[in-house]
Amino acid sequence: MVAERRAADQHYEAHRVFTLAFKLMLIIGAITGLGLFIFAPQICEFEMEPDAVYAMRATAPALILCPMMSCLRGFFQGRKTMAPTAVSQVIEQFFRVGLGLFLAGLLFKIDAPHAAAGASFGASAGALFGLLAVIFVYVKQKPSIESEFLDRTPIKKNGELLKEILIIAIPITLGAGIMPILNWIDT
Predict the structure, then answer these.
(1) Least buried of 25, 37, 67, 110, by fewest C-beta within 10 Å?
(2) Which of 130, 60, 139 is nearest to 97 (CA)?
(3) Which tens digit of pLDDT belongs to each residue from 20-76?
(4) What is the spatial distance between Cα 173 and Cα 162, in angstroms, rounded to a whole number?
(5) Whole-structure pTM value
(6) Do the Cβ atoms of 118 and 106 come closer than 8 Å?
(7) Are 20 and 29 spatial neighbours (Cβ–Cβ below 8 Å)?
(8) Cα 161 from Cα 183, distance rounded (Å)
(9) d(CA 152, CA 11)
(10) Dihedral sign, CA of 166, 167, 168, 171?
């Protein structure tokens, strides 16, 4: 949607799409992340894996951070700028793997569930550092981005933009969720 509006020289509208999507992802991420953290014991009990509570809770922050990071990456991709996404992905993977392995090794001295939590926390740490990297690029480029806004008159209302976002996002999300859902059912 960002690329579509930029192609039509609607730079301000492209930024509005990004900011609305970012807010939406922040809300959805916060709900799912907090839900996973709060209901981890019940989910693990249902899965018959009570020792996985620590690991599940260690992953919960990633559910808050990853959607925001994805919005920022998508914004830059819509601007045909892949470098911020690439840098963010490298930083994310470095911390995901590095910190995950380090914490797993360190916490294995306690027990396996804590080691699994340490490894799982790598995803949250990676998401945090990847998000910080892409935020840094955004803040640095924000004056340049805003200089492209020749007209700051909204073309569509927020509700219309939100509807467009959801029409695109829901099928993609459902499609991406099919395999994990089937794997979960198999479990």
Answers:
(1) 110
(2) 130
(3) 999 999 999 999 999 999 999 999 998 888 899 999 999 999 999 999 999 999 999
(4) 15
(5) 0.86
(6) yes
(7) no
(8) 34
(9) 9
(10) positive
